[in-house]
Design goal:
9 helices, alpha/beta, globular, Rossmann fold, binds NADP nicotinamide-adenine-dinucleotide phosphate, six-stranded parallel sheet, oxidoreductase
């Protein structure tokens, strides 16, 4: 069983590599330095050379605001890269596990989005990811596209790291309180993907297609920031909690418009794979404990 992980140095990629090895799979892990996904011939040649049993694509262009100006790069990585991988998988008759985003939706639905709801991305990142989903679905039968949201981990830059840095520096922070979504620990997403890999390994029947998976419960960015500071305070990473002022999206303009509600309904993956949503607060605790051990936020 050879698992090829693309985008291995990212938040999700790092967790996937660790956990794939722990599960005993032969794991081939590459990032941008070893394989540029936007190069079709090298991607196809690499897959043909490695001969994996399954590919997990954790690579993406994830700079949501920068994508508004770096449009070609966003589409190259998020649309063309998955297409080239899907073509390689089709040729080798192997499955592709691909990751997408809650930002394919416009956020106007008041309740959690289903896999069958119509996407309507509000920015370049969301559009490029949606086109990646479509390219995979059109090219390959054996694929899983997993839409997730608000990813955090101990590696890389993310909301948790930003809030902790600001909380160390300031007594008061302002955080948007009118956007709802579900924080998701990269460790939990990795476990979900590897559960599916295990099914492939055991040759179990799989209903291929599009699934939603996020942490639980859905909250606002403001409530997420409050929880981060509270947990960091309890673990002794913060000596005092800052006042976190709730503000509107209006007061915090960004290059890319974000969906107001991007909570994803995750019942389908539970039905098909018996995978339940993890409580992201447990994942957050893991991340904070790791940072504490590494003295990452000590003053
Ligand atoms: N982050 C979130 O909040 C979020 C939310 C919803 C969905 N998602 C999706 O979840 C998945 C994982 O996200 P993540 O947060 O783990 O992303 P990440 O930390 O930004 O990692 C992405 C990785 O892809 C690599 N990469 C970029 N361009 C590449 C290329 N041309 N060829 C090969 N590798 C390339 C990056 O390398 P460099 O760093 O060298 O560029 C990076 O290591 C993505 O599909 C993302 O769209 C993320």
């Amino acid at each position: 069983m050879t698992v090829l992980i693309i985008g291995a140095a990212g938040q999700l990629g790092t967790e996937l590599c660790l956990r794939s090895k722990v599960r005993g799979y032969d794991t081939v892990a590459v990032d941008y330095n070893e394989l540029d996904l936007t190069n079709e011939s090298s991607t196809q040649a690499f897959v043909a050379q490695v001969k994996p049993t399954v590919i997990i694509n954790a690579a993406a262009y994830t700079a949501v605001d920068r994508a508004e100006t770096e449009i070609a790069s966003a589409f190259a990585v998020n649309r063309d890269g998955p297409l080239y991988l899907a073509k390689s998988c089709a040729k080798a008759d192997i499955p592709l596990l691909h990751i997408s985003t809650d930002y394919v939706f416009d956020g106007k639905k008041p309740t959690p989005y289903l896999e069958t709801d119509t996407p309507n991305p509000q920015g370049v990142y969301g559009q490029s990811k949606l086109e990646g989903e479509i390219a995979v679905a059109r090219t390959l039968n054996k694929y899983i596209t997993l839409r997730t949201a608000w990813v955090f981990s101990a590696t890389g830059n993310n909301f948790v790291r930003t809030i902790l840095r600001l909380a160390k520096e300031r007594d008061e922070l302002s955080v948007v309180a009118d956007q709802t979504g579900a924080p998701t620990w990269a460790g939990d997403i990795a476990e979900v993907l590897l559960e599916i890999v295990e099914r492939i390994h055991q040759s179990k029947t799989i209903t291929w297609g599009l699934y939603h998976y996020t942490g639980s419960p859905a909250i606002t960015w403001h409530a997420f920031a409050e929880t981060i500071c509270q947990q960091a305070f309890e673990l002794g990473i913060l000596r005092k909690k800052p006042f976190i002022k709730p503000i509107s999206s209006y007061e915090y303009p960004t290059a890319a418009k974000r969906p107001q509600n991007s909570a994803l309904a995750c019942a389908l993956i539970q039905e098909e794979f018996l995978i339940s949503q993890a409580d992201w607060r447990k994942g957050l605790e893991q991340v904070l404990i790791q940072w504490k051990k590494n003295n990452e936020f000590s003053t």
